[in-house]
Write a structure and sequence with these properties.
This protein has 82 residues and is mainly beta. The chain has a single domain, classed as Lipocalin (Beta Barrel). The protein is built from no helices and 7 strands. The strands form 2 sheets. It has a 4-stranded antiparallel β-sheet with strand order 1-2-3-4, with no helix packed on it. A 3-stranded antiparallel β-sheet has the order 5-6-7, with no helix packed on it. It is globular and about 35 Å long.
């Protein structure tokens, strides 16, 4: 990702103190998770997609629901992260 052009970044914090980072680049989009102890995990990396917005909006037990808006095809994606 260091060599890629990044257009936008979105950051969201869940009630569990996990942080989620959504990155939209020229040819890719990706979603990352930061744990409270400082460990980054790549949750999703997609070529030819454009994630324009993201929100960690629900925590049910150990599962965090993340809403991602994909701009090229104008879709809303709901991702569940455990």
């Amino acid at each position: 990702m260091r060599d890629e052009t990044v257009f936008s970044e979105r950051l969201s914090i869940a009630h569990t103190d996990y942080m989620y980072l959504c990155v939209c680049g020229e040819i890719f989009s990706s979603l990352y998770e930061l744990t409270p102890v400082g460990q980054w995990t790549e949750l999703q990396y997609r070529l030819s997609e454009s994630y324009t917005d993201m929100l960690a909006f629900a925590v049910i037990g150990p599962i965090t629901q993340i809403l991602v808006v994909e701009g090229k095809r104008i879709q809303k994606l709901s991702l569940n992260q455990r």
